[in-house]
Design brief:
Elements lengths: L1 H17 L1 H4 L3 H18 L12 H15 L3 H49 L4 H4 L7 H18 L2 H15 L3 H19 L7 H8 L5 H24 L13 H5 L4 H25 L3 H19 L5 H6 L2 H5 L4 H19 L2 H12 L3 H11 L5 H11 L7 H12 L9 H10 L3 H7 L1 H22 L2
Helix pairs in contact: 1-3, 3-5, 3-17, 4-5, 5-8, 5-13, 5-14, 5-17, 7-8, 7-9, 7-11, 8-9, 8-22, 9-11, 9-22, 10-20, 10-21, 11-21, 11-24, 13-14, 17-22, 18-20, 19-21, 20-21, 21-24
């Protein structure tokens, strides 16, 4: 019964996010409320999901030792007084919630670091290094240029960082918001498709690589063509709506007053992009999580920015001050991420996602169909716990067709809905994309691309025998 209630709350929360403009309630508020309520329902009914015997031994021992120190009694005596419900409740709060919060915090710190780097580069006018060299004003040419840049950038950066950078770039190139929405939708599709064919481009392929399910070169060979087709299909379809030329946004009054030397623009742009590119390398070398790399890059870009602005005039120096830049970071997007990830985390810890994966295995059986369905499910819930469940369900050897197909489907399926991937959620916050607008104008094209890439992979494996 409580499982059903949690699922209903989760669905209602997603509907509130989807109909944000109809309800006139900010999606961040709906996401936060959904996340908190799901965890509250799970924690207060913990014994419905977890028995005392299911609590890990390490936590039981740590819990008993802590209580012995705090209350002056043995762990056994405390267990007798508190009962199983207290142990389970404490495990959910101190074990599962704390663990989930650690994972969520890593994503949020990464997002905060990447957004701040982009804002620093933007404040110095660094993106003009690229925008001044892009002469294309034709919507179609610009769409294809942005699409290919995004696709290949996300294979070396992660799709979240790429989306933030490319949307910031498009803002400098396209003034009309409606046109920019189509560009943003294409960026989400391209970023997710581009991230699927390398082990550092998407968190799911990284997970499969770390678990020794796929290898670096093999995944590039097998998934490049399916990922490219997944990207090209929506690009061709969206191109039908791209007629005419774009008008570049006018410089604001503040921007006109700024007097940043061209050398400073080039330096801050170079350090910003280099800092973002070094994050996956930092992870490969140190094995530390990506948020450590992005924070390290942020610190370097920040120091460079402080050194550069010493010679600026008073107005320019004030506008490029870090406190002024931090005000531009979209905090509602970060809070939206927090709520969404907390909500999905509650479903994961409650075992609901694992149950869903088990049901797929029982009633579907065919591993190719299961991979496709996991990809489609990842457009609704986070693909990380879905892939984690898939890893636990099967014991295929490294580079087996299922692992490769799972890397493709889980990486690209999130494009089918705006809230199905980190790239989509970031784009939604940055460009204020309406859930329903994306579902009507982008989702059908993303879905066609998803199945076209899946068909390409199936043909390559079964007929070309790669």
């Amino acid at each position: 019964m409580i499982t059903t209630i949690i699922c209903i709350v989760f669905v209602l929360g997603y509907l509130a996010i989807a109909f944000e403009h109809n309800l006139h309630i900010n999606k961040a508020a709906s996401a936060l409320f959904t996340g908190v309520l799901c965890w509250t329902l799970y924690a207060t009914n913990g014994t419905s999901f977890i028995q005392e015997t299911d609590v890990p031994k390490w936590f039981v021992e740590e819990h008993a030792a802590t209580n012995a120190v705090v209350e002056g009694e043995s762990g056994a005596e405390h267990a007798a007084e508190g009962g199983a419900s207290h142990l389970v409740r404490d495990y959910i709060i101190e074990g599962q919630l704390a663990h989930n919060l650690t994972e969520v915090a890593q994503v949020l710190f990464f997002l905060l670091g990447a957004m701040t780097i982009v804002e620093i580069v933007d404040a110095f006018g660094g993106f003009s290094v690229i925008t001044d060299r892009i002469q294309a004003t034709n919507k179609l040419k610009l769409l294809w240029l942005i699409g290919f840049l995004t696709f290949f950038m996300s294979s070396v950066l992660d799709n979240l960082t790429t989306t933030i950078v490319m949307i910031s770039l498009v803002r400098k190139l396209v003034d009309d918001h409606k046109t920019r929405l189509f560009f943003a939708g294409m960026i989400v599709c391209a970023a997710n498709a581009g991230g699927a064919w390398t082990v550092i481009g998407d968190v799911t392929t990284t997970m499969l690589w770390i678990k020794d399910k796929i290898s670096v070169v093999e995944v590039m060979i097998r998934l490049f063509i399916p990922s490219m087709i997944c990207f090209l299909a929506p690009l061709l379809l969206i191109s039908m709506f791209m007629k005419g030329d774009v008008q570049r946004p006018q410089e604001s009054a503040t921007e006109k007053l700024l007097n940043v030397p061209s050398r400073a623009k080039t330096v801050i742009f170079a350090f910003g992009i280099l800092g973002l590119l070094l994050v996956p390398i930092f992870k490969l070398v140190t094995h530390l999580p990506p948020f450590m790399g992005i924070l390290g890059s942020l610190s370097i870009v920040w120091i460079v920015a402080e050194l550069l602005r010493r010679d600026f005039d008073h107005v320019t120096k004030t506008s490029t001050h870090i406190l002024d830049i931090l005000k531009r970071v979209d905090s509602s997007t970060i809070l939206f991420f927090l709520g969404i990830l907390l909500a999905v985390g509650s479903l994961s810890q409650a075992g609901i996602l694992t149950q869903a994966a088990g049901l797929l295995d029982t009633y579907v059986g065919n591993i190719d169909l299961i991979a496709i369905m996991i990809g489609l499910l990842s457009s609704v819930v986070d693909n990380v716990p879905l892939v984690a469940a898939g890893i636990e369900m099967y014991q295929f050897p490294r580079d087996h067709e299922f692992w490769m197909f799972l890397a493709y489907t889980a990486g690209t399926g999130g494009s089918c809905l705006i809230i199905g991937s980190a790239a989509g959620v970031a784009a939604m916050g940055l460009e204020k994309i309406n859930f329903i607008w994306y579902m009507v104008h982008i989702s059908p094209f993303a879905l066609i691309g998803y199945f076209a890439g899946a068909a390409a992979y199936y043909g390559i494996v079964n007929y070309l025998h790669w």
